[in-house]
Amino acid sequence: MTSLAAATTGWTLLLRTFMRRDRWQLLWWSVGLSALFVSQAVSVDGLYTSQADFDRAAATMEGNTAFIAMAGPARALNTTGGQVMWQAGAVGAVAIGLMAMLLVGRHTRAEEERGREELVRATAVGRCATLAAAAVTALAAVVVAGLLTGAGLVAYGLSFADSIATGAGLALCGAFFTGSALVAAQLASTTRGTYGLAGAVIGLAYGLRAVGDVGSPALSWLSPIGWYQAMHPYSGLRWWPALLLVVGALLATVLAVALFLRRDLGSGVLAARPGPAVASPALRSGFALAWRLQRASVLAWSGGILLGGLAYGSIGDDAGDLVGDSALTEDIFGAAAGDLVDGFFAVSLVMLALIATGFALSSMGRPRGQEEDGHAELTLSTGVSRLRWLGGQVAVCVLGTVLVVAAAGVGLAGGYAMVTGDLGAFERLTLPMLAMVAPVLVTVGVALLLYGVAPGAQSAAWLVLVLGVVVLMFGEVFRMPGWLRGLSPYEHLALAPAEPFRVLPFVALLAVAVALSLVGAFAFSRRDIR
Amino acid sequence: MTTPPLEVRGLTKSFGSTLALDRLDLSVERGEVHGFLGPNGAGKSTAIRVLLGLLRKDSGEVSLLGGDPWTDAARLHRRLAYVPGDVDLWPNLTGGEVIDLLGRLRGGVDPTRRDELVALFQLDPTKRGRSYSKGNRQKVALVAALAADVELLLLDEPTSGLDPIMESAFQQCVQDFRARGGTVLLSSHILAEVEQLCDRVSIIRNGRCVETGSLGELRHLTRTSVTVELAGPPRGLEQLEGVYDLVVDGHRARFDIDTALLDPALAALVAVGVRSLTTQPPTLEELFLRHYGDRIESEA
After folding, report:
1. A24: Cβ–Cβ under 8 A, 6 or more apart, which residues?
2. Which keywords accompany this UniProt record (chain A) (predicted)?
3. Distance from CA of residue B162 to its chain's centroid?
4. Cβ partners under 8 Å of residue A330, min gap 6
5. What secondary structure letter does DSSP report for A455?
6. Residues A297, A192: contact at Cβ < 8 Å?
C-alpha cells in the first residue's frame, strides 16, 4: 500500500491542474452529450402528433436495415424513450468514447511526446501520478456527462429508472473507452498513434454492433456499445449488462497500468515505424507539400461523408412515413418543395454541404497553423513565393472540397438507388450536390479574407457555418426575415431536386468566393509573417 | 566595386508600440563569416526575418544579394539558405523528406553531398518530425541548408541544441563553405563559436548596431589585463589615462588598461624595469559584457 501511495504522490495536485485546464471542455462535452439525448425526446414529440402516426413511423424504421445498422436494435420505437435510446444511444457512446480518448491522450501521451511529462516527473510526484490523474479526469468527465444526461431525461419527464440507466450506461461506456485509451497510450509512442488505436477501438465497437444488430446478434455481444444497448432502457430495463462494462473498464485499466510499469518514459510498447529516408520525387512544390499534409484528412472526410450520404439516401424514400405530418415537419421539409421526399432531399443536400464546410474551413485553417508552427517561415525561406505557397494550400482546399462534396453526392444518390433501384438519382441528386461547392467556397473565401487581413480572427469564419445551420434548422420555424436568411450562402441555389438548376446564383456565389479570396491573398502578400 | 551580399542601412521596424529595430546598420562582405551578436530580444531574429522578406520594413534600406528581399523574395531565396533558431518540423514528414523538400524548393539538392552531411551529423533521416529532439530538428535544418548550392547562409543561433562534437562538425562545414567563397551571417550566443569562426562581428542592442568590426578592431576598444613584477615600486601608473582597478603590492602591480593606450603604460613600466609581465587580451565575453553587462553598465 505504501508503494502505491509513493507511486501516485502528488496526483491530486495534477488532477486539480488537469481539471482546471479542461473545465470548459468538460462542460461543453457534457452539456452537448446530454443535449443530444434530450433533444431527441423533444424532436420526437414534436414530429409525431398522434400515436397512430408514431406507430406508422416506427414500423417503417424497424423495417429499414440501414437505420438499424446506424442506430441499433429496434426496440419500442413507438415510444419517446425507445426513440431516445435508439437515436442517441450508439452515437452518444461513440461521442463519449471520443471525449474520453481525447482527455486521456492529451494528458498522457501528448505530454510525454512534448517533453512536459519529463519536467513533471522530475519533481516530487510519483511515477504513476500523471496516469492516475489523467484516468480520474476522464472518469470524472464521463460521470458528469452521464449524470447530466440522466437528469436531463428525468427532467424532461421520462421514466426515472430508465433515464438513470441511460445516463449510467453512457458513463460506463465512457469508462470503458477511458480504459482502452489508457492502453492505447501505452502501446503507441506518439499522440497520433494513440488516437489512431483508441479511435479504432471505438470504431470497432460501433461496427461490431452494427453488423450484429443487422443479422448476427452474437457480434453485438462483443461490443461495449452493444452491452450498453443490451441494458434495454425504456424497453424492459435490465442492469446486468452494465456489469460487463464495469469489468471491461477495470480490466483495460489494469492492463494499462501493467504496460505502463514495464515501459520507459517516452517509449511505447509498439516501436515507431521508421519512414522513408528520402522524399518521393513528387514532393517538390508548395502544392505537393500541402497535398501531402492534407491528403489523409481529405480521404477521411470523403469516406465519412460518403457513408453519411448513403445513410441519408437510404432513408429518403421513406421520408413521408418517417417524419410524420406535424406542422414542424411541414416547416422544415415541406414548405418550399411541396413534396416531402423532395423536401427531405433538399434539406439533406444543404445538411451535407454544411458538413463538407467543416472540412473546407479546417483545411483553410491550415496555413495559419503552418505559420504559427514556424513551418511557413521554413518554406518561405526557400524559392517558394508567398502567393505560390498560399496558392498551393488554397488549391488543395478547393480540390478537397470538390472531392468531399462529390463523395457526399455519390453517397446520397447511391443510398437512394440501393433502396429504390432508381439510377436516375445520380443525375437528380449528385449534380445538385456538386453545385453546393459554390456556397462552401464562399465560406472558404471568408476564411481566406480573414487570414490575409486579420489572421488572429480567422476562426470567425466558422460563424458563417453556424449561420447556415441556424437558418436551415430554424429559418422557417421562427419565420426569420429574408435578409437574414440571405446572409447564409447556402440559401441561394435552386431547391434541388424539385427545382431545376439555375446558373446565375451558382456563378454569383463563385464570384463572391473568388473576390473574397483575391482580397485575402492580396492582404496576405502585404503583411508580416509571424 | 561589387555590392556586398548583405547591406542594411537605417532599418527600422516596429510591432505596434514596440520598436524592434531602430535604425539598424549592418554590412556583410562577400566571403566573410559575420557574427551577429546580441542578447535575447535585441532584434537579431527580427533583422534576419526582414532580410528574408518575411517582415516588412518600416523604413531604411535593405539590400540582399543585390536585390530587394521584400519584392524579390523567392528569386533571391534560391541563392541562400536559412536555419531558424527554433526549428519546428512537419510532424508527419521524416527528416530525410524535409531535407529533400527544402532542397528542391530551393532549386535542387546534390544527393551525394546530402548523404555526406547526414552521415557527418549522425542524423537518422527515417524518423518523423514529431519524434526528433530539439538538437536533431536543428540538424535536419542544418543539413538542408548546408547541402544547398547557395552563396549565402543566414544562420539564426544554429547550434543552440547541438552537442560539442556536432558543434565542431558544424564549424568545419562553415569554414569549408567560406573556403568555397560563400558568405555567412551567423547570429549566435556562443561566443567561443563566434571567436572561432567569424571574421567580423556586429553587436546589436535594442535594435541598433552598437559595435561592428573585426575581432582585432573590437579588442582594441576594450581592456587588457596586465600583471607585472618590477625592479622597484611602480611609479606614475595611477596618473596614466586608461588605467583601471590598479592594485599595487610591493614590486608587483595588477591593472586593466584600455588596449589602445598600452604604449604609455608599458613605457612607465619599462622605466622602472620589468622582471616579468603577463598580459591577457580581452575575450569576446568582455566585449559582450562591455555592452550588456551590469558591471560595465554601473561604471558608466
Report:
1. none
2. Membrane, Transmembrane, Transmembrane helix
3. 16
4. none
5. G
6. no
pTM of the complete model? 0.80
Question: Using the beta-carbon criterion (under 8 Å), do A276 and B97 form an inter-chain contact?
Answer: yes
Q: Under an 8 A CB cutoff, do B84 and A293 touch? A: no
∠ CA B177-B183-B186 to the nearest 5 degrees?
95
What are the boundaries of each domain within chain B? 6-214, 223-281
Per the DSSP assignment, residues forming a β-bridge with B249 are: B252
Nearest CA to CA, how far is A383 from chain B (Å)?
4
Count: domains in chain A? 2
- Residues of chain B in contact with residue A379, where contact means CB-CB under 8 angstroms, are 102, 105
Contacts A374 to B, Cβ<8 Å: 84, 86-88
Domain match, A185 and A299 both: no
Q: Do A276 and B74 touch (CB under 8 A)?
A: no
More confident residue, A478 or B101: B101
Angle among Cα A335, A338, A341 to the nearest 5 degrees reads 105
Nearest CA in chain B to A283: B101
Residue A416 resides in a domain: yes
Domain limits at A296?
Answer: 286-526
Whether residue A281 lies inside any domain: the answer is no
Nine cell digits for residue A308: 453519411
Residue B17, pLDDT above cutoff 50:
yes
CATH architecture of B223-281: 2-Layer Sandwich (3.30)
**ipTM of the complex model:** 0.82
User: What span, in angstroms and rounded, lies between the C-alpha atoms of B130 and A190?
Assistant: 8
Residue A276, in any domain of the structure: no
pLDDT of residue B296: 43
CATH number of B6-214: 3.40.50.300
> Hey, of B54, B56, B65, which one would you mutate to test binding to chain A, going by the most A CBs within 10 A of its CB?
B54
Render pLDDT for A405-462 as a digit per residue (tens, 0 to 9): 999 999 999 999 988 888 999 999 999 999 999 999 999 999 999 999 999 999 999 9
Q: Is residue A270 situated within a structural domain? A: no
**pLDDT tens string A76-133:** 999 999 999 999 999 999 999 999 999 999 999 888 887 788 888 888 888 889 999 9
Mark which of A244, A261, A278 sits at the end of a domain. A261
One domain, residues A206 and A323: no
